[in-house]
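> @MW can you paste both from yesterday?
MW: sure, first one:
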Amino acid sequence: MDLKVGDVRICCLCDGQMRQDGGALFGMVPKVLWSKLVKPDRRNRVLLNLNCFLVQSGGKSILVDTGVGTKHSRRRQQVFAMQGGHLLDDMKANGLTPPDIDMVVLTHLHFDHSGGCTTLQDGEVVPTFPNARYLLQRADWEEVTHLNEFTRGNYMPQDYLPLEEHGQLELVDGDIEIAPGVWLKHTGGHTAGHQAVLIDSRGEQALCLADVLPTPHHLRHVYITSWDVRPMDTVAAKVRYVKQAERQGWLVLFNHGVECQAGYVERHDGRLRVRAYKD
């Protein structure tokens, strides 16, 4: 799926799919409610896409998130029903190879967003995109370098430590414009340094809220994951940005949307819903 937002081109890519526990995905929301939106399998797991976004602006090719990649053990693949590792094939189908990427924006470092950052090459784990700067909020780096019992299970150090070792990690603080009309917006909430990507070009906008709004089924304020380290920050960011997206007609991108990877937030009979983008 190719999109144009002002002068910025966005291409929706996909690393594959995986499944996550439905209860964890919707947090405090009872299953009797969230199961009306999405059907779990017999192990209570919900199917998720591993969507990544190629943003091209000002002559720069920027990749937003990298999926799960190919380094996971067989057991981990089975636990999450992973069918990942397709990002590079999807890029190739769109005429790009890893050296073509100038920047990789990491919304956060959970394994389903950063797994494709690195790859195994001749027995060594190295950055997948050799010419790219990997952009991450400093608060997220502080979090992953001081893991605790609550956060440890969501991370795989081999996904991100080689980025620092090879001098390709770039830490940012707060909101910053990284290319014409391409902004990183610190939201916090899901992780301490969780960040969104806002495209604002020629009066048109697109927004990727990553795991603050992982799927169209998470529009309601309390529909947040149980992995959020600061849930009220997630709610505050969602309230702010969803309201803007609805009022101003922003295109919203979903990292984990299956049937809908991009769409518009609209209100019908007092309830919010997403109208899927059509090519």
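MW: second:
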Amino acid sequence: MTEVNLPLIIGASAIDSINPCAFGVLIFLLSYLTQKFKDKKLILKNGLIYIFGVFITYIIAGILLLKIIQSLGQLTVWVYIGAGILILLAGLVEIKDYFFYGKGFSLQIFPGEAARIKKYVNKVGAKSSTAFFLGVFVALVELPCTGAVYLAILTLMSFTGLTTNYMVFLLIYNIIFVLPLIIILYFVYRGSSTDKFREWEMRNKKYMRLAVGILLVALGIWTISRVI
């Protein structure tokens, strides 16, 4: 396989979409909204707007990062080698968390930013704008936790550049990435407890990290092999 294709995009985004970081913030937000508001339509609206904020931020970030990586890669192949090594190391950290979760370094939202997220969630009310800007903020600060797979795909795309096909691939990737969030929102809207989703996340997060880790190791090796 010499270039990014649709099966790779679907597979990578599906694995990336089960990242515990993305789940955790939405569950926390919905838990807060269901306690504060009884209007299910308001909860659904704010949840969808929050998810849209995450989606649009990832799209814009993807386009900008792809162009930056491509520009730097034209200067020296060491940019691609460095990116590949970084992706590979991120994968090993995720695999480590399968065996030793919570011990040593992990890919996660920085503690200070996690506290800010909780603070901003408490400000989400009836106004749609607050839910949107929360989605934008969360998408930016959770990149250290969720962005490794995205970085790998963008690095591989940068060998060719932002073609029309790749723009479509970015849209597909991010639609799949937010799809589990939409599913969680739907079930909460229909009356499911956020506690059930939190419990499911806690039981399965090490398996999620293992899947992400294996994917990252493969993508890291592939990236390095493209330039050596």
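> thanks! The mean pLDDT is 85.
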